[in-house]
Amino acid sequence: MDLTFWKSRYGQGLAVLEPFWPYIAAAISLFLAIYVTAHVAQNKRDARAAAAWTGLVWLVPVVGAVLYFMLGVNRIQRRARQLTGGLIDTDDGWRVAAEAVPTVPHLQVLSRLVGRLTHLPLTDGNELALLDAPQTYQAMLDAINGASESVYLVTYIFGNDAAGKPLVDALAAAVKRGVKVRVLIDGMGAHYSLPSVFWRLRRRGVPVQRFLYSLAPWRMPYINLRNHRKIMIVDRSLGFTGGMNIRAGYLHKPARTTDLHARLEGPVVGQLLRSFAADWVFTCGEVLETSYRGPAQVGEVQARGISAGPDADFDKRRLTLLAAIGSAEQRIRIVTPYFVPDLTLMASLQMAILKGVQVQIVIPRKSNLRMVNWASLHALRWLVGEGAELYLSPPPFDHSKVMTVDQHWLMLGSGNWDARSLRLNFEFDLECYSDTLTTRVDKMLDRHILLSTRMEPEHFRDMAPWRRLRNALSHLMEPYL
């Protein structure tokens, strides 16, 4: 039979079905809407997210269902357990015989709660040096150049620029010395500079992988799940973590962006190592040695790592923030570039204000993400009305993420106060119990606040109506920012 015969038969079949196409399309749309609604109802813990996806699949037939299957279904947890054998939740690194206990009584409950969330001990005997971005960059270069056994680095953005190229040179030199180097860059963050630094690392012989990277259409469901962690571990005994990406903007004079990072020594470095090893085995299947090699006592800081993400670590960061806010008795200070928290965090801050806790929040006056900044101002309008102190810091853009409670507890790392960091990103933060360290950070914040502009309730009342509407409409996008 020739092609003409089949075309004829095909055309006849379509002609027979033509009157029924509207009914077939309606049946498919109805089936998809019902199926997705059932899936959303059973798998989404956030009622607002569930309502948003349900509305989308019914109001935008077929297209809404396709978007849900691409972006709304979390497939990470299942795959992570397949690759790690379920060990992602266990403490397979260095552990002390007796877990440290905070000296401040009202923070001991917080420590127990975070310990149960993370399945990790609060480690004693750590030393933390707080560094700005240029200091961190130089300290990381020095550490790589002095490495003798291993260098493990994970970052969201690794620029192919004046900041990234010298680090590539140092990593390549370490490989030639026989150092075990592993570099993990987020699949989206790798393209913040073009051409990507990934290829420069490959050409120089540095083992590098991209986290959740693929151009294949069937990999699109992972496009919204990013690795936002910034961790480096050298010789399994020295660590770096905080909010700093590897970008030239930090090194310009004057700087375009500022940040806060920590250089770590002590047992908590083993928890950074564990987090990196879990990400690495997830990405490429290679199992790394996760035993801590440094001394048990270096300083006086009690610290614990908090890995959070849309996998086995889901909700750990948000619950930690809620517990920290609830434990405050005197003062809460928050510095973040993006402040668009969910209703539970907003309510907990309001409760803290009502019980007499001083709440101070510092965000940049000019953000690099305008819609997030507008949404932040809408959310903060209500907190300022309740009594929170809001400060807008002047340029350069401050990318730091830090929180202190009662001059005893400190949290810093990669996580922001927005839906992306709280639900979608893989983040790493460090909680520290230390009067000395927290006081040092509070003094830094005092200087920061002196340079900032305070927003009073009347500033929001006097704001142009079109600006208030713009802010409110931007805040409607809170679940997606």
Overview features:
cell membrane, alpha/beta, 43% helix, transmembrane helix, 15-stranded mixed beta sheet, transmembrane, 3 domains, 19% strand, Endonuclease, Chain A, globular, 481 residues
Summarize the model shown.
The protein has 481 residues and is an alpha/beta fold. It contains 17 helices and 17 strands. It folds into 3 domains: 71 residues; 200 residues, Endonuclease Chain A (Endonuclease, Chain A, 2-Layer Sandwich); 165 residues, Endonuclease, Chain A (2-Layer Sandwich).
Plain-language structure description:
Keywords: Cell membrane, Membrane, Transmembrane, Transmembrane helix. Its main location: membrane. It is found in: Cell membrane. It comes from Alcanivorax jadensis T9. About 45% of the residues lie in helices and about 20% in strands. It has about 475 residues and is of the alpha/beta class. Helix 11 runs parallel beside helix 12 (about 345-355) and helix 13 crosses helix 17. It is globular. The model is unreliable at about 80-95 (pLDDT under 50).
